[in-house]
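This part of the workshop introduces the protein records we will be handling. A record pairs a protein's sequence with a compact description of its fold. Comparing a sequence with its tokens is the quickest way to learn the format. The record below serves as our worked example for the rest of this section:
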Amino acid sequence: MLQDTLRNSPFIQTTLLQPISYNSDKIRECFNAYKFPDGRTGEWWIEDRLKALFNENGEYWKPLHREGQLDYVVSALEGMTEGTMPRWNANRLIINLFDPKIDLHKSRCPTPPCLINLSFHPVKQSLTLIATFRAQYTDAKGFGNLLSLAMLLKDIADKTGFHPSKLYSIAHKAILKYPQSVAKGLLHSLLCV
């Protein structure tokens, strides 16, 4: 993800996260220890992203639960597992975090959410999640976003009788929060694992 932001056009970047065979614990350990120029660590950024999705005061928690969207997805998936909900409903397992009534405006503030859409796709007994970002700081937030989304996918799959499968993260605008030299240093530290 970060490597793509550094070398390619920052528009429409897709990251696929599948079960991994390399030492992900070591990568997370290296990211956790990495110190950004403002004094924040990778661990701080991961915690920030987990809070954004799972804490009731987090920036994504209320939109995720708005109008019963998450409850509907869980209920529909449970029904599909139990055979009481037709599988054709699978194309409705979408959670919109972008609210046009709030987020569609011409001023700089308030800033619309970066994570704008979650789409769940059951295939047989596997569940895939596609997350769409309006924009994403791939250096600071990318890793934590992937971890928090993977945890959400596992949690929903466990609750509904599915097996977590693939996680796609699509950023319409992949950007760097810190200077390119910082991102290159972070990437180097992670590739040396």
Notes: The chain has a mean pLDDT of 89. The longest strand covers residues 163-175.
